Structure formats: C-alpha cells, structure tokens
Amino acid sequence: MIALFIPLGVIGPWQIILIVVIVLLLFGGKKIPELMRGLGSGLKEFKDASKEEPADKKIDDNK
Predict the structure, then answer these.
(1) What is the span of the domain harbouring residue 25?
(2) H or E stretch including 16?
(3) Is 53 within 8 Å of 61 (Cβ atoms)?
(4) Which sequence ranges are marked TM in the entry (predicted)?
C-alpha cells in the first residue's frame, strides 16, 4: 500500500475564503448570526461547567 502525503495542518487564506463562501451558500446570510450565537453560548456553558467543582468531590467534603 502506498502512503499519500496529505498536508492537513496547512490552511491558507484561499482555503478560509472557500470555507466561508461554502458556509454562506449552505446557510444563508440571515442564519449565520444565529449559528454564531448558539456556538458562543455553548462555549460559555462549557467553560462554566469546567470551572465548577465535581459533584463527587462536594459529597466527599461533607463527610
């Protein structure tokens, strides 16, 4: 089997522009802010949850 070299880590400005155009075509201009709002709230919720103390540790401290 021949291994192919695929440069996955190299993303240039043309690739970013292509991705943005594809996203705009798929979702439309009106849907993008709504998607970004959902992404932002999801990230905020994840950060808040990662800062909280685990429930197991809270129970052990009460003993």
Answers:
(1) 14-48
(2) helix 13-27
(3) no
(4) 6-27
Alpha carbon distance 63, 35 (integer Å) = 45
In-domain check, residue 22: yes
pLDDT number for residue 18: 92
Q: What are phi and psi of 37, to 5 degrees?
A: -60, -45
Q: Give pLDDT, residue 54.
A: 66
What does the angle CA 7 – CA 13 – CA 16 come to, to the nearest 5 degrees? 80
Domain count, the chain: 1
pLDDT at 31: 87
User: Average pLDDT for consecutive 10-residue bins of the chain (63 residues)?
Assistant: 64 87 87 89 92 66 55
Radius of gyration over alpha carbons of the chain, in Å?
Answer: 21
CB atoms inside a 10 Å sphere around CB 49: 8
